Amino acid sequence: MKRRKCDVRMKYHEMEAREVEDTLNTNRHEGMSEEDAQKRLEQFGYNELVEGEKQSALLLFFSQFKDFMTLILLVATLISGLLGEYIDAIAIIAIVLINGVLGFFQERKAEKSLSALKELSTPHVTVLRDGEWKKIPSKEVVVGDLLKFSSGDRIGADIRLIECNNLEIEESALTGESLPVQKTVAAIKQDNPGIGDMENMGFMGTIVTKGSGVGVVIGTGMKTAMGQIADMIQSAETMTTPLQRRLEQLGKILIVVALFLTVLVVGIGVLQGQELYTMFLTGVSLAVAAIPEGLPAIVTVALSLGVQRMIKQKAIVRKLPAVETLGCASVICSDKTGTLTQNKMTVTHLWSGGNTWQVDGIGYTPKGDFYRSEKRVDPKKEKTLQQLLMFGMLCNHAEIHKKNKEFIIDGDPTEGALLVAGMKAGYSRPSLLNQYEILEEFPFDSTRKMMSIVLKDASGRRFVVCKGAPDVLAQNCESILWDNRKQAMTQEMHKSVNEAIHGLASQALRTIAIGYKELTNEGRITSEKDAENRLTFIGLQGMIDPPRTEVRAAVRECKEAGIKTVMITGDHVTTAQAIAKQLGILNKSTKVMEGKALATMSTEELEDVVDDVSVFARVSPEHKLKIVKALQNRGHIVAMTGDGINDAPAIKAADIGIAMGITGTDVAKEASSLILLDDNFATIKSAIKEGRNIYDNIRKFVRYLLASNVGEILVMLFAMILALPLPLVPIQILWVNLVTDGLPAMALGLDRPEGNVMKREPRNPKEGIFSRGLGWKVISRGFLIGGVTLLAFMLTYKGDPNELAYAQTVAFATLVLAQLIHVFDCRSEKSVFARNPFGNMYLVWAVISSVLLMLVVLYWPPLQQIFHTVPIAGRDWLMIVGLSAVPTFLLGFTYLARKTK
Ligand code: ATP
């Protein structure tokens, strides 16, 4: 392991915390002023690591022409120009250029939307500005800012720590050492320490694994330890999806097939007596038209447009492959609190020593009365109730503010609810803090399911106060407050506590228990293990957390789409059960499993029963990984939500890892492939729907483009076999490639989902692009499009060379129209009649403009010369329209006939 020396910051770790604040002109109570921060930002720049060179626009433009066939076409055109075919040469070059420009814009758009995505998922940090803690994008942090962070956060800049609560930071990105480092605030007087030895510093990009802290920023951007080692900057995630890779492979095969067929066309043409030079140019144009070189770019555009639509629905895709996997999801494992429920907690019931109180008032407004046996009581006269409320406020990390006449909780809503309950009884945390000093704090963690503090009162007595999941906390109690005094916990009392826990939980209340112990010896409590034992049980606070209104419908919609919803929660089994029933997650055929049972099972044992379970309660984050594995082994494609640092392994292992945008830690977000900006379950459903739609749209235009290409090649091939003249001239082939294959294909990418998108089973991830009849559709429609075009040509061309240009024009018009009608067929997996043709107005306009462009080519004399076209007579239009409708409608009617049978 290489230890890096970090001399730039030497003076900061040697200084006392106060000195650092003075040197950097900041202070721990007010932080920086917004004004100073702005000035520093302008002077020193953003807090970001400079990225490597991007591909320049010019390079991207030229890369559009590096395709082998395009190069040959350009050379061939050059030759034809030298031979005197100026008009042809210029026209072909113009078309190639326009094609290049279109390709350039498509790729640019794809690139831009991908970098916009990156921007959206950049982390935010909490800084103190003008005395107020604020969340800002981490790139706006300046030297002198005070940074607050807790377990799961990534440190946003280099800092000198000034406050640590059991803080541990994992610095392996810098030191290679995977064990977290315990941090302190004391100055270090060691000569030239390595990064790993600077225990009073935090470094940009490292991860807080435990506790919380505050630090003064001493370096940002490239002036951080991370900035100094540019090669360690994480490279971007892979951004191609399995489908893109499969299409790329398919593209290679198609190139070979298209080239083979082109050579065949040229070979047969030459044998049949066509001129070699004409056949060469025809062959190259055909190859350019038939090779779907633009397919990957259109796929990227379709993916990124879909991703933008998802952003509007509050889902950010971090890894593009997730878009595809979303359409395959068969199970969604969702957290309860905040995702299925609103995470707006209000304490409604309290229990202590056999007594139950009720509190009224909703939300965070601290107004409400207390009742016992339906009679109003003064909470300050009920002794144990007082203890319960006061300790709930002290063992607490949340803050409450009034903003625009509304009360807002800063911190964990569970803790916010405890603050509000205390305030309803007339207590306030600041005045309690005047009576009690907090000596230590052991933050909440969802494996322990508890939080504790060590308190000192005015007379110097010290207490541990502990709050947590009641069943867990009760196990650590040996006594209980009953009849206003501490008593050994009898069997009877234990039973009574359990009944109270169940009573509250069965009303779907989230319950928190509070316990305490007085410390008699002098020793300092340094770990939660020492704190959380031999406690005295004080009582319970039960809070409502209403389900999100939209979730019930979303769960039902998922069920119809063949997707099972599983609730995974740290909450009590009865609470979980009650809410799962309300939401339609739990029904007669599914079961609830507890974390305890899960812990003793092997993954194989779990596999046998996992399909029947729809609620996992009292689980720890570590169990989530086991659940993901078991479901995956059963052949499921699993979407798993999470927010904490311990959720990261399960999020990573899931097929679609989902992190919470609001409550999620940086670590969870970085492990995820999808972030829910609103933490809402219904957003997952919307994202799945969009994922299915994107995949459908990709299938639509793959089908359209390939069927068109098959048609183009076949018309030429059949003509050569039948010893006919060329039915299309090269420039016409190129025009078809540019216009018909361009806009309508893009418009298909913007199509809305077909009505049944959430009424069918999830897609099998192993299925190929041509499955579910797509291959047959491409071949059959391609044959028909080629066939009718040739037929139109043969019906018009009777052997008179003077009629050739006319017949070619008719063939050209038939090919174009047949493709433009077929594009409507591609919108549905069933038939052209299954959807309203005006349902996608982009497509309607794309088709109208393509038709208009075709008419211009046919009827505008300057273009007639270039495209070798002749005006078509009215009577022939009837035949053209009739023939071009055949490929689509023939098969449409066959479908209808089969359906009515
Ligand atoms: P999810 O449903 O998202 O898994 P959860 O809130 O149900 O989340 P945890 O956050 O792990 O699960 O909480 C588990 C239990 O720990 C809760 O049922 C509650 O009793 C207790 N608890 C929750 N928050 C706190 C806290 N801040 N301090 C002490 N105990 C808490």
From TrEMBL:
Segments crossing the lipid bilayer: 57-80, 86-105, 253-271, 277-305, 701-723, 729-750, 778-797, 803-821, 842-861, 877-897
Main subcellular location: membrane
Family: Belongs to the cation transport ATPase (P-type) (TC 3.A.3) family. Type IIA subfamily.
PANTHER family for this protein: CATION TRANSPORTING ATPASE, SODIUM/POTASSIUM-TRANSPORTING ATPASE SUBUNIT ALPHA
Topological type in the membrane: Multi-pass membrane protein
Alphabetized InterPro entries for the sequence: ATPase_P-typ_cation-transptr_C (IPR006068), ATPase_P-typ_cation-transptr_N (IPR004014), ATPase_P-typ_cyto_dom_N (IPR023299), ATPase_P-typ_P_site (IPR018303), ATPase_P-typ_TM_dom_sf (IPR023298), ATPase_P-typ_transduc_dom_A_sf (IPR008250), ATPase_P-type_domA (IPR059000), Cation_transp_ATPase_P-type (IPR050510)
Disulfide bond keyword on record: no
Statement: the UniProt record of this protein carries the keyword Cell inner membrane: no
Domain Cation-transporting P-type ATPase N-terminal span(s) in chain numbering: 11-85
NCBIfam families named in the record: ATPase_P-type
Entry keyword set: ATP-binding, Cell membrane, Ion transport, Membrane, Nucleotide-binding, Phosphoprotein, Translocase, Transmembrane, Transmembrane helix, Transport
Protein name in the entry: Cation-translocating P-type ATPase
Localization annotation: Cell membrane
